Amino acid sequence: MDGIKPINSLKEVEQLKLPASERLFSANNDEIIKGYTTDIYFVKSVEIIRALGLEDTTVVAEVFASRPGIMCGTEEVKNMLQGLTITMEALPEGESFEAKEVVMRITGKYTEFGLYETALLGMLASSSGWATASRECVEAAGESRMICFGSRHVHPAVSPVMERAAMIGGASGASNIMGAKLSGNEPSGTVPHAVFLTVGDTVEVAKAYQQNMPPGSPVIILVDTFKDEVEESLRVAEALGENLDGIRLDTPSERGGVTPQLVKEVRARLNMAGHQNVRMIISGGLSPDRIRLLKEAGADSFGVGSYISGAKAIDMTMDLKEKNGQPIAKRGRIPGVTKTTRLQKFI
């Protein structure tokens, strides 16, 4: 936050001009830290508190979750609040939490951090929802790899956040370049049907892939573009031999999608032809239930998109629980700091 002055008055809001032409509509880092994405009522709240001379009031705010899930977004919130004279405690990313459990606590002057409530809750809600959906797929896959392919289903401004959250949830990889890099990994993925349609032959693409990709890159080839999946799998396996690591099935819904019966047949035919080491990667409309069925049929790895990217956010709520050392709460909530030993200090 060094050098970035947060917005702190209604006059500044009125003077703010954001032309819609020649820009992307998503907020950048500076705009979020300046408070441009907050709900206006938090700016009004700060103005009233200052007008009454209560700007030095110290409060304790707690954030709790509406339903069980996997914690994600802690690091992003820490980065947003870094530099404020506050204390921030939270569950580490990747930890599970229960419904109504306190997942974050902030102590400091409300006039300093209140502006960020909207962004803070949104970061935790969305990221935790994505991480939770990812964990469900990981648990369904068991020891098999599960890679997140969900970027095409969300706005590009949040696609790295989503795929990083999937990695926090346990995904083995992410296809989004920025999402993978932010989680300390390299992006994973092969090539789309467009390459095969442009070239005109699956085997020709397979050979070019094997010859042109960086050394050590797994050679995994789509086999559902032109011919029967079994036929294409055998053609590619015969052409590449030991250089082929796996085939990917992404049969469209118009042709029935990838079924357990199809997986069983492809696996059996590959084995009969001596290609037992060729892995089977499945993608296209996967859910935890479908992953379990396809894994039982013989699938080795899974690429999941919309189940993760379309996951419902886990609603987060922030409550003030203490003011100047005295317990407080709105009706329906218990005054005072909630007892927990699970939170760790981040700021």
CATH architecture of the largest domain: Alpha-Beta Barrel
Query: Roughly how many Å is the radius of gyration?
Result: 25 Å
List the total number of helices: 14
Order of helix and strand elements from N to C terminus: HHHEEHEEEHHEHEHHHEHEHEHEHEEE
Strand arrangement, major sheet: 13-12-1-5-3-14
Number of separate domains: 2
Structural class: alpha/beta
| Quantity of strands, as a count | 14
Distance linking N and C termini: 13 Å
How is the main sheet built? 6 strands, antiparallel
CATH T-level topology of the largest domain: TIM Barrel
State the share of residues found in helices, binned by percent: 25-40%
Mean pLDDT: 95
Beta-strand content bin: 15-25%
- CATH class category of the largest domain: Alpha Beta
CATH superfamily of the largest domain: Aldolase class I
Task: Assign an overall shape.
Answer: elongated
Uncertain regions: pLDDT < 50 for 5+ in a row? none
